[in-house]
Amino acid sequence: MANSNLTEAKRAKNDEFYTQYADIEKEINAYLDFNPDVFRGRTLLLPCDDPEWSNFTRYFAQNFERLGLKKLTSTSYAVESKTYKGTYQPTLFETSAPYYDKKKTKVNGKIFTLTHDKTGDHHINVDDLEWHYLKGDGDFRSPEIQALRDESDIIITNPPFSLFREFLAWIMESEKQFVIIGNMNAMTYKEVFPLIKENKVWLGPSISSGDREFQVPDSYPINAAGWRIGEDGRKFLRIKGVRWFTNLDHGRRHQPLPLMTMADNLKYSKHKEIQGKKSYDHYDNYDAIEVPFTDAIPSDYDGTMGVPVSFLDKYSPEQFEIIGYEKSYHLRTKIYPKQIQIDKNGKRSDVTKLNDGVAIKVTTPPDDMTYYVVDNEYYVQSYKRIFIKHRKATK
Asked: In 256-292, which positions are buried (b, 16+ CB within 10 angstroms) versus exposed (e)?
């Protein structure tokens, strides 16, 4: 399935994708396996949430005692402040509360807090949540939510897809720990990649491939592939390319990637693009070799290598150094003259796209992809690449 669901959601400004309980549990368990006390005595903030629907709130409330939390706070956007306007009906949970307000339910956000056993059953869980209306609409950029951010220790949520850059910057300025969900394309955003390069942000451990299912509001129009309606009538969409972004440590990022030597890759690699070749391709406009698959990184190459963005799923900062990515200004070491682009249908056009990334000079132009002609020589442009080096090459 193409990632059309997320594209359509961004275009429609629909940011209401509710993460599944099992996905949250799997991710959090990985941090607990590395450090069982990672949440003990901590205050958690779940902003941009919808506590009445959210599995984030449900998970942390149900596991409040096991995790040793000090305080749990969840906040939601007001209905009228959401960019995607669907039908709205307040829940019975809200309308049955003595402080329910017909006006505030649409224009004010909500805040849920959990700190102690309210019901008297000697357990702290979801039944002990207390809620009230926020003074404002619940926007994370408001002074009200910023104050909650500043008093928290860890921020965990699925932020609005359309505001991912701004939300991450909002967290980073507070120097808080966090676990959030975003699209894998965010890895190469100019606001995000430097944080990954400097080991201030890395990917979470539980998602490294495939797609994930998210619940969407009942009013969400289902018109794309990968959707289903559950037995209880709830709607779900499958989204490709999602990742957890975090600065909480976990064990996977310290596990070195097992690799073969360059000679063994050229002889035994399972990838036809590698096996049987005399050498790895070298970029024409940057001093690095092309490594189209993460498991084909040669263990004994000391120079710079261009690898897929998905390499970051396996990245260990003790094993590799990140140099940059193909759009980085300092990687543009050669500017091509006027080029002719020929697509796989044979259509020709004058372009300058070859200057936007790294290029590989080829002897014979491929018939299954776009190629470029410069002074009667043939080139193909690589897919998005991150440039890395071994911190200490294994001989």
From this structure: eeebbebeebbeebeeeebeeeeebbebbbbebbbbb
The answer to whether residues 274 and 251 touch, using CB atoms and an 8 Å cutoff, is: no
DSSP per-residue codes, 303-324: S-EEEEGGGGGS--TTTEEEEE
Q: Which of 90-104, 225-239, 360-374 has the highest mean pLDDT?
A: 360-374
CB 275 within 8 A of CB 338: no
Please state, in angstroms and as integers, the Cα–Cα distance from residue 303 to each residue in 289, 299, 300, 323, following that order: 8, 11, 9, 11
Question: What's the CA gap between 135 and 137, in Å, rounded?
Answer: 7
Among 264, 283, 307, 257, which residue's Cα sits nearest to residue 361? 283
> Strand 348-351 vs strand 339-342: parallel, antiparallel, or unpaired?
antiparallel
pLDDT, tens digit (0-9, with 9 covering 90-100), for 301-316: 999 999 999 999 999 9
Quote the Cα angle for 303-313-163, to 5°.
115
Task: Read off φ and ψ for residue 33, nearest 5 degrees.
Answer: -65, -35
Q: Which long-range contacts (CB under 8 A, 24 or more apart) does 262-267 make?
A: 262/298, 262/299, 262/300, 262/301, 265/296, 265/298
Report how far apart, in Å, the C-alpha atoms of 373 and of each of 286, 317, 354, 378, 382 are. 18, 38, 10, 5, 15
| pTM as predicted | 0.87
Q: Which residue blocks in the chain are alpha helix, DSSP H? A: 4-11, 21-34, 55-62, 64-67, 92-95, 104-107, 143-151, 164-172, 193-197, 262-268
